[in-house]
UniProtKB/TrEMBL annotation:
It is found in: Cell membrane; Membrane. The gene is coxB. The chain crosses the membrane at residues 46-68, 89-111. This is Cytochrome c oxidase subunit 2. GO terms for molecular function: copper ion binding; cytochrome-c oxidase activity; heme binding; oxidoreductase activity. Its EC number is 7.1.1.9. GO terms for biological process: ATP synthesis coupled electron transport.
């Protein structure tokens, strides 16, 4: 009996150490959806059962290695055992009960992830070899990135134009295949809980570039989401300054030029309009319309002192004349 007591203590200690270690090992990225909470709760229970089963086996083994090792001079065979009916019944009934219990928990978690909100935002997710498209049919536009409002449920309807893909954002925990064919649509409901940028990865081997079938997922404040939807549906605004701000973001100007005076690789746009600047050739210029247009079209033509080592790409090449004028209007609006 003292052996059983010692083994029980050993198993209990091992279970706590392993279970606590695994539970706190950060084996999953931070949770970012309501539905994922049910999955995480399930994972945690599994972790503890796994820790106990592992400790049960390795605990008995470790103890036996030490307590029942051969003594010096011992030559005979060990005791002979002929089964143990009680033990056999126990190790059949107990695991059966645990498996049934987890089947119940799994079904409950599945139901939890499918709880429907009638006001859910509808987005159709279309997988293709090898990219994702998101159709916001209620608003009548499509996007290459998935933007979702925080704390509101989105109903994603999955489909595919060719082969089976799989929608997977690890922080949301849920995964759903996107199947090709009429009537093969599958649904997934997600209520994001943390503002931020995530990656959607295809989780079904779908061909040569499967590994690169990645899209941006952006969880936004509801007001930002509504603003984004309005921008997508209304087209460019009538106000050249607002358009200029949009080009500032879309053409990547913001990577090098701040609009709040802070330092980035290039000069900030805040208050730059109308100032006098010393050029690298020793002359001075006034930052006016003409100089700004030249700087966008031919960035290396006249460089302001202190920025001579920075090579700006000729961004103007990919913009229309009107867009360049919009940008200059936007810079002028930042003069105050
Ligand atoms: Cu699509 Cu893998």
């Amino acid at each position: 009996m003292k052996h059983f007591f010692r083994v029980a203590v050993l198993v209990a200690i091992l279970t706590v150490l392993i279970g606590f270690g695994l539970d706190n090992s950060g084996y999953m990225p931070a949770l970012a959806s309501v539905q994922g909470a049910a999955i995480d709760a399930l994972f945690r229970k599994h972790i503890w059962v796994i820790s106990f089963l592992f400790s049960l086996i390795s605990g008995f083994m470790l103890y036996s290695f030490v307590a029942f090792r051969r003594k010096p001079g011992e030559e005979g065979d060990g005791d002979h055992f002929e089964g143990h009916t009680g033990l056999e019944i126990a190790w059949t009934i107990l695991p059966l009960g645990i498996v049934l219990y987890f089947a119940f928990l799994g079904a409950a978690a599945l139901a939890e992830t499918r709880r429907a909100d009638p006001n859910a935002h509808k987005v159709t997710v279309v997988g293709s070899q090898w990219s994702w498209r998101f159709d916001y049919e209620d608003y009548g536009f499509s996007s290459t990135e998935l933007r979702l409002p925080i704390d509101q449920q989105s109903l994603l309807t999955m489909t595919s134009t060719d082969v089976i893909h799989s929608f997977w954002v690890p922080e949301f925990r849920l995964k759903q295949d996107a199947l090709p064919g009429e009537g093969m649509e599958r649904e997934l409901r997600i209520t994001p809980t943390v503002i931020g940028d995530y990656k959607l990865r295809c989780a079904e081997l779908c061909g040569l570039e499967h590994a690169y079938m990645v899209s941006d997922v952006i969880v936004m404040e509801v007001s930002d989401f509504e603003k984004w939807v309005a921008e997508q549906t209304e087209g460019p605004s009538d106000d050249p300054i607002e358009r200029g701000e949009l080009w500032y973001e879309q053409y990547g100007c913001q990577a090098c030029h701040s609009i709040d005076g802070s330092d980035r690789i290039g000069p900030t746009w805040a208050g730059i309009f109308g100032t006098e600047e010393l050029l690298t050739d020793g002359t001075t210029i006034v930052v006016d319309r003409e100089y700004l247009i030249e700087s966008i079209v031919d960035p290396q033509a006249a460089i302001v002192e202190g920025f001579e080592t920075i090579v700006m790409p000729p961004t103007g090449d990919s913009m229309t004349e009107e867009q360049i004028h919009d940008i200059v209007d936007f810079i002028e609006s930042l003069a105050e």
